[in-house]
Amino acid sequence: MSLAANFGELRPDHYHMGLDIRTQKKENLPVLAAAGGNVVKVVIEPLGFGQAIYIRHPNGYTTVYAHLNEFFPALAAYIHEQQYKTESWRMAVDIPPGLFPVKKGDLIAYSGNRGGSQGPHLHFEIRRSADDVNLNPLLFGLPVPDNTPPTIQRLAIYDRDRSIYEQSPVLLAVHRVGGAAAWALPSAQITVPSPRVSFAISAFDTQSGSANPNGIFQAILYEDDQPLIGFQMDKISYNDTRNINAHIDYKTRETGGPFLQHLSLLPGYPPPTIYASPAGRPSNGVIDLSNGQTHVIRIVIKDAYGNSSTLSFRVQYHPLAAPVKRQAKSGLLADTSDHYTAEKKFYPGMIDGLELRECAFYLGEKSLYDSVTLKVSLSGTRLSGYSRAHDRQMSDEYTIGSPQVPLLEPVLVRLQPSAAYDVDSVAGKGWISLTDKIVMVRANGSQREVQSVEWKDYWASARFREFGNFQLVEDNAAPVITPLEPLEGADLGKATRIAFSIKDNLGALRNFRAELDGKWLCFTNDKNLAFIYKFDEHCPPGRHLLKVSVEDVAGNRTTKEYNFTR
Questions:
Q1: How far is CA 431 from the centre of its chain?
Q2: Which residues pair with 75 in a beta bridge?
Q3: Whole-angstrom Cα distance, residue 398 to residue 375?
Q4: Distance of alpha carbon 94 from alpha carbon 278, whole angstroms
Q5: How far apart (Å, rounded) are the C-alpha atoms in residues 138 and 148?
Q6: How far apart are CA 271 and CA 20, in angstroms?
Q7: 98's torsion region: left (phi>0), alpha (psi -120 to 50) or beta?
Q8: CA 546 – CA 516 distance, rounded (Å)
Q9: Which residues contact 214 (CB under 8 A, 6 or more apart)?
Q10: What are the structural domains of the chain?
Q11: Cα separations (Å) of 21 from 17, 85, 270, 307, 550?
Q12: Is the dihedral of CA 230, 256, 447, 419 positive or negative?
């Protein structure tokens, strides 16, 4: 067994929650049940797992198999029937108990590359059935040979008298000394200008015979030979996986830097965590160096098989001339009449917001992992990449916060149409109908997110999981439907499928529906690419009328009809 990724590996906004098992760069390899039990759930979605099977076992565990191409015939037929019964290709269906029992080694599916997969492989998970918490499969004795210790790449040092998001860490390269498992800094002793510091590391692990860099299992921080804090990738819940953004240096990663894994707790990191401190000596991992003495630091990195690597060094605090600190202010900083810019210091656990004349945002008590000064300002830029012939920008674009600051709970953004759109003149003249097509757009570079809005007192509001640039747009452009092969009037007797490309000017599709001779027809949409129907019993020989309807988030709809023969 060879791994492309292991449990706890670092990904954008989540941990990798299982093992990615290589399938020789091939698809359609047989997937067998790991143990006896019952199929209890099937998931079908365009991204994420793609197609997945859940098997519950009598020993209290559930195994998950994802990115599958096909299910075993009896299950495939059942799911096909359920899709037509519910008129939905996407599914998260619970299977009646005992309907599909399996024995260890039974064929349950064929491997594939569906969903969020970037190449052919099998994603495999083990969960506790009682609470749906994911467990590290490598702790179950799977045959993955591993005699190689983890590799340590660099050490990061933070001034913990400041916010993690308002500094750049000192990065130090490390090198091997005296063997494969011992590591050191360029200098055995380092001097820091802050009396309170914390550390983070970049590291990876490999398995025997593989150079693929996988995640590490465990890291423990020792101060003066006493264990202070550590983290361990033995169990993680999907409810907590987004907290990876408090485990890594999010700002460094977002600005193109490496993954840095903190050996400390951020103040807003909610329980439960992957971190633990020794009994009787609770610690958040922040080291107090204010006594000016030299402290011996040791960091031990381990994989799931017990192979370990150690980085050792000494650290001492030496005060420097204190820099002049800029005082953060609340409220307006410029143009008090027009309210173009404001900033405020926010803290974990704080319920507060910031308001301008036509823009406001609000954070909940669980939004932030660390304190940070957040700013809202008129950006002065215009939204690009959409058809100006159909759409109107209904507000100025505002920059709220920074994409380098992660959010656990969404930010509530409120925008008001700009003065250029005279809302008073349409009040009482169908204002509600005029706002039906207005959406809120968040932009961060080339990334774009579109949300429908709620209206109250001429203010539009929506929630987002990231900061960025926000603007109201009146979207009047309907999606475009394009057949990928000739369809109107075609003889499809030798064809195997019908496929469509669906495009929207804002990339915000909401609904797709196809009907053949007035009855719903199942089109797949793997990876949110083409919509594909593979001919089955629902399209018998003869003449047919296919009707395709597509709707975007703003409610714009396109409907096309095609006549063909099969």
A1: 37
A2: none
A3: 10
A4: 41
A5: 15
A6: 28
A7: left
A8: 5
A9: 3, 5, 6, 9, 204, 205, 206, 207
A10: 19-135 (2.70.70.10), 151-317 (no CATH), 332-474 (2.60.220.30), 480-565 (2.60.40.3780)
A11: 13, 34, 32, 21, 37
A12: positive
282 exposure class (CB count in 10 Å sphere: 0-12, 13-18, 19+)? exposed
Region label for 197, one of left (φ > 0), alpha (ψ between -120 and 50) or beta (otherwise): beta
Give the integer Cα–Cα distance in Å for 358 and 423. Answer: 13
Tally Cβ neighbours within 10 Å of residue 300: 18
DSSP state of 328: P
What pLDDT, in 10s, does the model give residues 473-525?
A: 999 999 999 999 999 999 999 999 999 999 999 999 999 999 999 999 999 99
Contact 453, 440 (CB under 8 A): yes
Low-confidence residues in the chain, pLDDT < 70: 321-339, 380-391, 419-434
Coil, strand or helix at 333: strand
Q: Which of 414, 556, 532 is nearest to 474 (CA)?
A: 556
* pLDDT on residue 380: 66
Q: What is the Cα–Cα distance from 409 to 245, expressed in whole angstroms?
A: 12
Q: Which tokens in the block code for residue 306? A: 């017990």
Biggest alpha carbon distance in the chain? 88
- Measured between alpha carbons, how far is residue 204 from residues 176, 177, 201, 229 in Å? 14, 18, 10, 19
Are 540 and 493 spatial neighbours (Cβ–Cβ below 8 Å)? no
Cα-based distances in Å from 460 to 69, 318, 381, 388: 42, 52, 20, 21
The Cα-based distances of 562 to 303, 516, 530, 538, 540 in angstroms read: 58, 10, 17, 16, 16
Q: pTM value? A: 0.91
